[in-house]
Inverse folding.
């Protein structure tokens, strides 16, 4: 079967599952008893394994399988969650990510077996189990399996392998086994069961396998059941006897029998019928009430869906059986494991051995993950980002054309001196449509920031370990949405900032204690929307930025002269951190301090049209605030005129527009300022900034008050032209565009207006 | 090697300048050009050609040949040395297209230590006329 067409889906889904595993593992480390988490982990790992197997990525499958074994033991409560365990599992996840990356790049999973991790897992498994409650004998089927596989032969896997009936020896072995509890008894059945137990009779669960070549399955099954009934009382069958009669089962069914005979006898009785491949007889212990949901789940995994018809109302009765809880839980697990290993076996067959039943094997590998899909399914379509870009470009063109019609209409109206109402109305309608079209297209490109930040808890955990500091990361606003292009780029800058906080910000536990702070440092990552901007802030309650140290360093590096340093405000000094090759970390660690961090962060943020600012208080911590525009391609702007030239100022950075008398201008340090409602705001003459000739001031000046972070400034313009939706375009590659021009836009009449970057003017 | 290349011969005053035809996308008449403040002095500004914003340079200013005088004959050659990077080049006049073989071009000229020499690939000879063949990429890359 050609699976290449599924590769993309495989990559996407594996990525999601790996992320989920990372998250859940963190939760598990916090609360090792969280059953939901363990189940979630188990499901995700199992799904990855199944998918990897189907796709023929054997190494990936193998590693996941080994990890899954560990999860399985944890789920069985045979092993406790230790820090070492989590570390190794995280390493495993990284290795899986490595495989995935390699698949993305080269289409193959690479050559690395990650044997060290596999060994590590085996070791943990061995140690954990020896300490654990239940011990299992060493696998007898060692020789049958590959040498590598030995490592993972835990109790559960062993059981499963046995039940698969790989060899007769294994099957025989199984007889000695106690258990089988996936079946939930209803009230009557439970009564019979309890009565049988009370009478000292044995209750066995007989799993019968019919040869796949068998034609009259139901007839064979009937004979088996009949033979069994001669030797005891059949409490129930799985599937129901009706279904067995109707041949509604694969090649396997099971029966619960209360009998005076021993297991061997029962087996013999069952095997007497022709075309029966195998019969596994196990002692049956009814399940308890606790962990019911889990068992049900496990049961569902193991069975094919029609199974759970009789599983209701056993709750009360089962409560009496509390004493048997542990073993029954375990037995439920074994069942599900069996299914796992079947899927596993199936895929291995397909991938490596290529047996005749490859098709069926495939089905096995695929059905397993399918049955365990996430319960909540979003109705969504995956679309190539290029297609969305095309759509966006077309919308841009449409808006330009619309602006064209609007301006033609305006001039025409002036010329004829009358207003064509119908036409104007239609234009307004067109405007509304293009605006909402633009919004919709924009929205399709919006991605919640969650996809970026979800990997950070793991990173902070690792940093916390490697730095030997205690710290917690708190994330809010994961659902804040940003344009896809921004999302792709914003991860690294945020990561740098978080690393910075962890490495430079948060002090060691001892230091924190001395400073009278709680030992565990707190790092906050908050995202939220503010007007047309998205704010992402990274803050910590660490040591804060030592301004004096920065100043010293800057002077010693020759970045600034001592005289300059004297004149600089603290804020300006802190801004020096964003200069290239500037790191105050006393020792260079692998985490940060290579002097590339903040400089790169700022460059990146600026290239995304955003800004970054810093607030810091020594001893109390520091905050980095990233401000990003919501959209990149089309923005609302205020059109202004200076001399005869038209400029666009993004609406997002405009605070107010003021018409002030010239006499209001005051001078502070020979700079022009105005006092606006208590704020002293410096004036910036756009004419001089834009190299235009000075003009004689009118009596009143038109001033656009703009804002950059906390700073305000007033831009003096000649004339206001109004608000316009503009499409941002680049002004070309070779031209050395000045920083204060962030691009250009084409107006309705075909003219070009330059877009001013207020941040660079202030 | 008999390699024949086509060049568009443009004029700046009396002098002929040749631009290899392969990189020329389009030739347009004088357009409205929007000034861009604080850019290299030889950039006149940007213009809008069918929704695309294209910066325009003055070849005269770049080569130190004085101010442009815009006439009916003024043309802007839109060159595209690499994809998605258009530049308009303003010239006084576009004259003709000539075919030059390798042997018609004197490459020694570009080795002269003249300020503008680096912008020249060589000097072509045809019909008793001379044409300085421009090296567009060095012209565009040179930031002065």
């Amino acid at each position: 079967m050609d699976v290449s067409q599924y590769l993309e889906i495989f990559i996407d889904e594996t990525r999601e599952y790996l992320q989920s595993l990372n998250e859940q593992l963190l939760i598990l480390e916090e609360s090792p008893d969280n059953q939901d988490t363990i189940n979630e982990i188990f499901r995700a790992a199992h799904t990855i394994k199944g998918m990897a197997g189907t796709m023929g990525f054997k190494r990936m499958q193998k590693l996941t399988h080994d990890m899954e074994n560990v999860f399985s033991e944890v789920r069985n409560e045979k092993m406790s969650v230790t820090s070492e365990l989590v570390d190794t599992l995280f390493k495993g996840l990284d290795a899986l990510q490595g495989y995935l990356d390699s698949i993305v790049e080269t289409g193959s999973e690479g050559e690395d077996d990650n044997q060290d991790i596999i060994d590590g897992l085996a070791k943990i498994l061995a140690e954990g189990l020896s300490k654990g409650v239940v011990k299992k004998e060493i696998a007898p089927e060692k020789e049958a399996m590959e040498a590598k596989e030995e490592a993972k032969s835990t109790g559960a896997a062993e059981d499963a392998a046995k039940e698969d009936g790989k060899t007769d020896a294994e099957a025989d072995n199984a007889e000695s086994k106690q258990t089988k509890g996936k079946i939930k008894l209803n009230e009557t059945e439970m009564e019979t069961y309890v009565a049988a137990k009370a009478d000292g009779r044995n209750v066995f669960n007989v799993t019968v396998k019919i040869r796949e070549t068998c034609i009259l399955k139901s007839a064979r099954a009937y004979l088996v059941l009949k033979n069994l009934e001669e030797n005891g009382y059949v409490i129930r069958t799985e599937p129901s006897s009706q279904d067995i009669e109707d041949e509604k089962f694969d090649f396997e069914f099971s029966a619960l029998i209360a009998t005076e005979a021993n297991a061997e006898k029962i087996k013999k009785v069952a095997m007497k019928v022709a075309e029966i491949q195998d019969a596994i007889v196990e002692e049956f212990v009814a399940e308890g009430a606790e962990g019911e949901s889990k068992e049900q789940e496990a049961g569902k995994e193991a069975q094919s869906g029609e199974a759970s018809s009789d599983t209701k109302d056993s709750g009360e009765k089962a409560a009496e059986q509390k004493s048997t809880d542990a073993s029954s839980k375990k037995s439920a697990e074994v069942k599900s494991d069996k299914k796992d290993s079947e899927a596993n076996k199936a895929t291995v067959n397909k991938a490596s051995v290529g047996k005749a039943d490859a098709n069926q094997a495939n089905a096995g590998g695929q059905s397993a993950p399918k049955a365990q899909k996430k319960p909540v399914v979003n109705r969504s379509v995956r679309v190539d980002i290029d297609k969305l870009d095309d759509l966006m470009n077309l919308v841009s063109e449409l808006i330009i054309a619309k602006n064209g019609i609007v301006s033609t209409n305006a001039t025409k109206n002036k010329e004829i001196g009358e207003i064509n109402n119908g036409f104007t109305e239609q234009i307004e309608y067109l405007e509304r449509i293009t605006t909402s079209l633009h919004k919709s297209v924009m929205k399709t490109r919006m991605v919640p920031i969650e996809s970026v930040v979800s990997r950070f808890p793991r990173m902070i955990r690792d940093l916390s370990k490697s730095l030997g500091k205690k710290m917690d990361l708190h994330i809010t606003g994961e659902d804040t949405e940003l344009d896809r292009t921004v999302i792709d780029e914003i991860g690294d800058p945020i990561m740098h900032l978080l690393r910075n906080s962890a490495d430079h910000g948060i002090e060691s536990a001892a230091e924190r204690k001395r400073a009278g702070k709680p030992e565990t440092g707190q790092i906050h990552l908050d995202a939220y929307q503010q007007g047309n901007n998205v704010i992402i802030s990274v803050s910590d309650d660490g040591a804060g930025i030592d301004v004096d140290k920065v100043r010293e360093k800057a002077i010693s590096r020759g970045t600034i002269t001592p005289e300059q340093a004297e004149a600089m405000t603290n804020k300006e000094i802190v801004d020096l951190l964003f200069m290239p090759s500037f790191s105050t970390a006393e020792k260079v660690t692998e985490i940060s301090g290579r002097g590339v961090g903040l400089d790169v962060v700022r460059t990146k943020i600026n290239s995304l049209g955003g800004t970054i600012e810093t607030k810091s208080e020594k001893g109390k911590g520091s905050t980095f605030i990233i401000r990003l525009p919501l959209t990149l391609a089309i923005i609302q702007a205020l059109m202004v005129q200076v001399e005869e030239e038209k400029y666009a100022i993004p609406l997002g950075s405009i605070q107010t527009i003021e018409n002030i008398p010239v006499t209001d201008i005051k001078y502070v340090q020979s700079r022009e300022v105005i006092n606006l409602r208590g704020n002293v705001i410096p004036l910036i003459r756009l004419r001089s900034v834009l190299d235009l000739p000075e003009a004689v001031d009118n009596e009143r000046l038109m001033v656009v008050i703009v804002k950059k972070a906390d700073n305000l400034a007033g831009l003096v313009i000649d004339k206001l032209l109004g608000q316009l939706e503009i499409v941002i375009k680049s002004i070309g590659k070779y031209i050395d565009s000045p920083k204060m021009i962030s691009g250009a836009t084409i107006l309705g009449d075909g003219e070009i207006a330059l877009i001013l970057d207020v941040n660079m003017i202030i | 090697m008999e390699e024949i290349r086509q060049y568009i011969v443009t004029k700046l005053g009396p002098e002929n300048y040749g631009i290899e035809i392969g990189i020329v996308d389009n030739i347009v008449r004088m357009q409205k050009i929007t000034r861009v403040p604080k850019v290299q002095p030889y950039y006149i500004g940007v213009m809008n050609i069918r929704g695309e914003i294209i910066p325009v340079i003055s070849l005269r200013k770049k080569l130190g040949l004085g101010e442009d005088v815009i006439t009916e004959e003024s043309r802007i050659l839109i060159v595209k040395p690499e994809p998605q990077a258009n530049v308009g080049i303003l010239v006084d006049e576009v004259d003709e297209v000539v075919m030059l073989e390798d042997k018609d071009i004197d490459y020694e000229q570009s080795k002269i230590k003249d300020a503008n020499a680096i912008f020249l690939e060589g000097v072509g000879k045809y019909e008793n006329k001379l044409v300085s063949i421009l090296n567009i990429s060095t012209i565009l890359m040179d930031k002065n």
Q: What stands out?
A: The two ends of chain A are 63 Å apart (CA to CA). Residues 133-181, 289-376, 585-596 of chain A have pLDDT under 50 and may be disordered.
